[in-house]
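Tutorial sheet, problem 5. The two components below are modelled jointly, 900 residues in total.
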Amino acid sequence: MTLVKTTYNRRSFLKTSVLAGGGMMLGFSWLASCTPTPEEVLNMPKEWFNINGFLKIGENGVVTIMSPNPEIGQNVKTSMPMIVAEELDVDWKNVIVEQAPLNTDVFTRQLAGGSQSIRQGWQSLRMAGATARQMLVEAAAQQWQVPVAEITTAAGILYHEKSSKSINYGEVASAAAALSVPEEVQLKDLKDFKIIGTSRKNVDAKKIVTGQPLFGLDYRSEGMLIAMIVHPPAFGLKIKSLDDSAARNMPGIKDVFTIKTYNDDYELQWSDTSAFPEMAVVVGNTTWEVMNAKKALRPEWEPIAPKRTEADVFGRKVVTITPAELESSEMHTAKMAEMAAKPGNVLRKDGDPEAAFKRAARIIERHYTAPFLAHNTLEPMNFFAHVTEDKAELAGPIQTPEFMEKSVAARLGLPLENIDIQMTRQGGGFGRRLYGHFVVEAAIISQKMKAPVKLVYTREDDMTFGSYRPAYHVTYRAALDAENKLIGFHVKAGGIPESPIAANRFPAGSVDNYLAEDWTIPSNISVGAWRAPRSNFIAGAEQAFLDEVAEALGKDPIDFRLELLQRAQDQPVGENNDYEAARYAGVLKLVKEKSGWGQQSGGAHRGVAAYFCHNSYVATVVDIAMESGRPVIQKVYCAVDCGIVVNPDAAINLAEGGVVDGIGHALYSAMTFKEGVPQQSNFDKYRLIRHSEAPKAIEVHFVKSDIDPTGLGEPVNPPIIGALANALYKATGKRVYDQPFFTGNQSLG
Amino acid sequence: MAIFNLNINGKKQEVDVDPATPMLWVLREHLDLVGTKYGCGIAQCGACTIHLGDIAMRSCVLPVSQVGNQKITTIEGLSENGDHPVQKAWLEHDVPQCGYCQAGQIMNATAFLKANPKPGDAEIEAAMNGNICRCGTYIRIKAAIHTAASK
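Model answer (C-alpha cells):
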C-alpha cells in the first residue's frame, strides 16, 4: 500500500462539518432540481455528513460524491467520482454523483482542457476517498474501543473480525466528520481495485435519454429575459453605428444596445479571446421574438485599426499583432506557400542536417495543408447571468469557470468572492468553451437590464464568432543515402496565426541529422485550442510523410516506425525528446497484432499511423473501400496507452468519438473566408460527418498498464487522420496532401 | 399573437404566441419541455426532432400554426418512465457522450423503427443521416437501434 501525506490542498481537507438536512451545495434552485436522482433502490438519507469537499455520507450509508470538473462529454462526471469511490471503498450502487460548484478552495483544477482532468485529478481524488475512509475507520475504532489496524472495510461497511462486529459507514459518518483529518493515509494497491478498471454507465444517461433539463440552454429562472447578439459580419470590421428603430418596437422586445466586452485598461487572460469585443445586443421575452428583432437591426460597420494586444497566458505576457485587412482563404493559401519557401526560425537542430541533405542520394519533399475549422459544439454558446448591485450569479456551459470568474469580476467591478459560476452539463466543448467571452457578455447584459438574462447564440452566431482551429502548412523533407538509409529529416511548419510544430516529438531523437523550423502569419481571425491543438494537423501530415518515406525505402510502414523508435530508445539523438519510445512502439505492436497487419485484409485498403500527444500514445489502422469514388470506412483498429483505464467502456466510447471526429474533419470540414466573411455559417454549408460516413466498426484496445492514468479526450483524434491519408493512397494510388481530402461531390482516385 | 390548442404528449395545452413561432420554441419556452434541443434552426442537424403523429419532424422549422390538431410527442412523452425500448437500448449501449443530440436521435430512431421494425445497416444510416452527433457516437446509435429492433 502507498502511504501519502494529506497535505495536498490541505485547506479543503481540514474542513469537515456535520450538516443536518440536505446540505445543498448548489445555490441555484434550478441546479438543485437537476442534480442526479439515485435509482429507486436508494432511500434518500435524512441527514448528510460532509467528510470533505469531495463527498458526504448519509446516515444510511448513501454516499454523494462531487464531480469537480466541467462535463463536456468526456464522461468525467462518472469517472472522477469512480476514483473517489474506489478509495472510499463503497458500493458504486450506493453512490450519487453531483456536479460540484466552482470552489477553488476545495478543488484543484476545475477545468476541462488538454485531456488533463483524470491525469491531474488522480492523486487528489484518490486521497479524498482514502482520507474519508480512514476517518470512518478511526470513528469505528473509537466506538468499538479496538485498534484502528484491526478494522477492515468492504463495500461501505466497516468490520472488526475478532469481535465479529460490523457497521455501515452511515452509522459512524457523524462521528467521523467530527474527527481531525489524518496526517497521512494509505492508498489501495492497484490489485485491490474493485471499481477502477470496471465499466460503469454514464451517471446522467437516464436524464439524457428522457430529455431532462441538464444543459446550459435548458436553464431557466423566474423573470428571466432572453438576449442575443449581432456581431460584425466580417473579421476586420467593427460596429460603427446602430439603427435600432424598427427592432425596438417589435413585440416582446425590452431593449437594444451595444456592449463592450472588456474595459480598455483590462489585461486580457488567455481565456478572454474574443473575435468581436464590441457588439449589438437585443433583449426580449422569448428567443423567437429576439431572433426576429435581430433581423430588423440596421447596424453600420467600419474597418478596425491594426492593434496590439497583450494577454496573460499562464503568467507569460504574450503580445499579439492583429492586422486590419479583410482576409480571404485564397490569400491565406498564397501567403502560407510564400512563407514555406523561406527559411524559418530554427527550433531544434541535431547533427548536421544541411550536410546530410547535400550528400543525400534522394530527397523527398512534401507539403501538407489544412484549413481553419469551427468547433461546432451542438449546443451553441450560451450563458445565464443574474447580476445585482453587489453580486453576480452565473450558470452555463464553460470549460474554464475559474478563469471566467476573474474576467467577470474585473468587468463588473465586483469582488471575486461575489461572483458565482455554476457548471451545467455542456453540449460539447472541443476547446470552444475555453474562451468564455459570452460569460462576460451575459453578465454585462444582466447588469444593464437589472434582470436575470440568458444569452443565446444562434447557430450562425456561434459558427461565425469562433475561436477557430488555425490554418496550417507544413513542409517535410527526408534525406536518403545510397544505402537506402534515412540520414536527414527536416520539418518546417507554420500557420495562421500559429505554428503547429512540436519540435521535440518523434521522429526527433531517431534521426542523426534533424532540423525543425517554424514560421507564423499574423491574422485578425480569432483562433483557439481545438480538440488536440496543433497535433490535430501535424500528426496526420507527419504520419503520411513517414508512410511515403517507408515506401521509398521499400519498408513496411510499421516496421519502419519501429526501427526508428528502437533507435530512439537505444541511442536517442539530441536531448529533450518528449516521448517514451518503448510506449510508442508498444501501441504500434498492439495495433499490428490486433489488426492482423500484413495478412490478407479482405480487399480493404489499409493505412497505419501512430502519435503521442496529451500524455497518451495511440496507434491506428484503418481499412477503407472505395465505392463510386467515395471512401467507405470499413473498420478502424485503435491501440491506446493511457496508463490505467478508469472506466473502460466509457473510454472506448470516447476513443470511438475521437476516431469519427478525426475522419470527419479530415475528409469533409473547412471554414473558409472571403473578405473577412466566414463562408460557412450553418450545417447546410459546413459539412460535418454523418451516420452513413462513419466507420462501420471500430475496435479499441488498451495497453495493460499500472502507470497513472492520462487523458483520452484528445489523443485518439490526431493519428487517425494520417492512417486515413495512407489508406486513401492505397485505395486510389494518389497521395492526399490538402485537407479536407474530400470536397463537394468529387471522386477520389 | 394567436391562441393555439395543442395536443402534446397526450395533454391539451393552450399557448398564445406569434403563429410563425416554430414548435421548438413553443415547447422549450412556453411549455417548459426543454428535452427538444436547438442545434441549427434550419432542419440540418436533427436535435429538435419530435413526432407529429407518427412522423419524425424537425420542430425548428415547424410553425405552431401548421400543427392543427395533430398529436405531438416529445422526448418527455415518449414513455412514462423512460422505458421505451429505444431509450432502454440507448442505456444498454451507454450511447451518449455530451448527450445534447441524443433526444433528437432517439425521436428520429423511434419513428423510423415504427415504419421499419427490422432495418438493415444501410437503412439505419439513411434514416439517421439527418441527425448530427458532433461527439461521434454513430456506431453506438446504430447498435442501439439494432438492439431496440430485436425486442
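Marking note: The mean pLDDT of chain A is 91. Full credit if you identified this.
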